[in-house]
Design a protein that fits this description.
5 strands; alpha+beta; about 10% strand; hydrolase; DNA endonuclease SmrA; 7 helices; Ribosomal Protein S8, Chain: A, domain 1
Length: about 200
């Protein structure tokens, strides 16, 4: 700074005093996420999924009404998937898409899966029906659902349900663990290890 700039700076700073320690305010609530923000984030995520999932039947791998369905994401343990296949996991949510139009079924599927994931549910029973009477595409909803589910990051796998819960007209859908569930599992498996 030149002498003139220095004088000008000090003239502008005249009367300014530093903040005292007690003047600092920290509001932890200001950094926390509000329910409205969470709702907007969930809606944006749902819209992103809906935009990338096709509703043109020509883009689905066609399935026969009695075909079993199965999908397992990499990293899912074989025993965990076997338990899913055998219907050993509780499924508090039952999502029934039978008789819906494709667009409505897609929206119900995305919203239902995201809601179940938000409630920290790990398994959903999804009833898609066999679609025996669908013209000109038999098993249309079943084919669509089998195409859409792998596009949801929250879905870890799915398999046709047991006969008493719908057989090839329904499926068990395994959802990913939430961060809280991962932390709890890590803590559970960590106990007893380490220094004594």
């Amino acid at each position: 700074m030149t002498g003139d700039e220095s004088e000008l700076f000090w003239a502008e700073m005249a009367g300014v005093k530093p903040l005292e320690q007690g003047d600092k305010v920290f509001n932890p609530e200001a950094n926390s996420v509000t329910q409205a923000q969470l709702s907007r984030r969930a809606a944006a995520e749902a819209n992103e999924y809906l935009d990338r999932m096709p509703t043109d039947p020509a883009l689905f791998k066609p399935m026969a009404p009695d075909d079993p369905v199965s999908f397992k994401r990499q990293g899912v343990q074989d025993q965990v998937f076997k338990n899913l296949r055998l219907g050993k996991y509780k499924h508090p949510t039952i999502l029934d898409l039978r008789g819906m139009r494709l667009r409505d079924a897609k929206e119900a599927l995305v919203n239902g899966m995201l809601a179940a994931f938000g409630r920290e549910e790990r398994c959903v029973l999804l009833i898609h029906g066999k679609g025996l009477g669908n013209k000109p595409y038999p098993a249309l909803i079943k084919s669509a659902v089998s195409s859409w589910l792998p596009q949801l990051d929250e879905v870890m796998g799915f398999h046709s349900a047991l006969k008493e819960e719908g057989g090839n007209g329904a499926m068990y859908v395994m959802l990913a663990k939430s961060q809280a569930q991962k932390d709890a599992a890590r803590e559970t498996h960590h106990k007893g290890s380490g220094f004594r």
